[in-house]
Amino acid sequence: MPYKHIPVMLSEVVHFLNCSPGKTYVDCTLGGSGHALAIVEKIIPGGLLIGIDQDKDAILNAKKVLRPYELNVRLFHENFVNLPEILSQINIDAVDGIFLDLGVSFYQLELSGRGFSFKKDEPLDMRMNINSQVKAEDLVNRMDEEGLKKLFRQYGEERWAKQIAHNIVKVRKRKRICSASQLAQIVCDAVPKKFLFTQKIHPATRVFMALRIAVNRELELLDSFMESAVNFLRPKGRLCVISFHSLEDRIVKHRIKALEGKCICPPDFPKCVCNPKRVVRSLTKKVLRPTEEEIAVNPMARSAKLRVAEKL
Ligand SMILES: C[S@@+](CC[C@H](N)C(=O)[O-])C[C@H]1O[C@@H](n2cnc3c(N)ncnc32)[C@H](O)[C@@H]1O
Question: Over 80: is that where the pLDDT of 200 sits?
Fold first, then answer.
């Protein structure tokens, strides 16, 4: 199956990464390699692009797309939280830029056959890395009702979380829930009829997003990555992150704020205990969004938010 994905905010990313020949960058989320290709074209001759993705299909695709530049590229089928180990494996202490384009690719959603989309009659898997242990099917069939409700509410901000969790538990007593289309139907059956198609999005969108986030541990891994990634930047090196979910953006914003030396203690703390040190400056005081023109061509870009920090 050919890999398809339109890179989001491409010109903004290339601009903010400040690419030039001879520099070294890490693309932590290769996907369809659209951003990676644009970066590598700017850093030759002499530059190096380290490409990471936890989905082996993205790595196979990157091998093809980036083949003309293979001497300037190193690819790793890895989780980006393992960046320190990856860099030490290739004897690199610091790079000029680190890029993350979070979320799911068009390929994963529409073509991978792994049940990321509620529109498909596919196994309920949702693992970006097929070597990892837990599938969406495991969560849906094993978590208790309260756990499912919290999951849909917390990660999906789903209004009907309680009703949906209840219906899942009711249905699975009779029959194991194994496919994406079966789960989508269970969600639709749980939402009160008059609210079913009043929103712009399909009623199962938020439940599917919440499950994907949980299966791939997306928020906890992002938070831990954001805490340490800046240690691997050279002075003036840039960290550039595109997020698609308000909870992801909150993590990115919060971590950049702390790295700017601002206190991130809860407001009710009597004194600061986080002792922040200023190691970056933010280059995007206001979050950047895709243009209307880009969204018209690529609706998948509509919720993208770009934040950039530069190491001092
Ligand atoms: C939105 S796509 C990236 C698209 C890419 N920028 C392009 O130009 O096509 C996100 C990619 O990040 C990968 N990914 C998400 N979380 C990851 C993680 N923690 N470690 C490694 N790869 C991850 C996914 O497998 C997916 O391929």
Answer: no
Residue nearest ligand 1's atom 25 by CA: 55
Q: Are residues 139 and 288 in the same domain?
A: no
Q: Give the ligand 1 atom nearest the CA of 5.
A: 9
Residues 17 and 43: beta-carbon distance below 8 Å: no
Do 227 and 84 reside in the same domain of the chain?
Answer: yes
Final residue of a structural domain among 183, 215, 247:
215
Per-residue pLDDT of 13-55, as tens digits, reads 999 999 999 999 999 999 999 999 999 999 999 999 999 999 9
Alpha-carbon span 32 to 58, nearest angstrom: 6
Q: What's the CATH code of the domain at 155?
A: 1.10.150.170
Does the C-beta of 47 come closer than 6 Å to ligand 1? Answer: no
Ligand 1 centroid distance, CA of 75 (Å): 13
Per residue in 268-309, pLDDT tens? 898 888 888 899 999 998 999 999 999 999 999 999 999 999
260 and 141 share one domain? no
Strand residue runs (E) in the chain: 24-27, 48-53, 73-77, 95-101, 233-243, 280-282, 305-311
CB 203 near ligand 1, within 6 Å: no
Same-domain pairing of 192 and 244:
no
Q: Is the pLDDT of residue 197 over 80?
A: no
Q: Which ligand 1 atom is the nearest neighbour of the CA of 107? A: 27
Distance CA 143, CA 33 (A): 36
Task: Compute the radius of gyration of the chain from its Cα atoms.
Answer: 20
Is it the case that residue 112 has pLDDT exceeding 90? yes
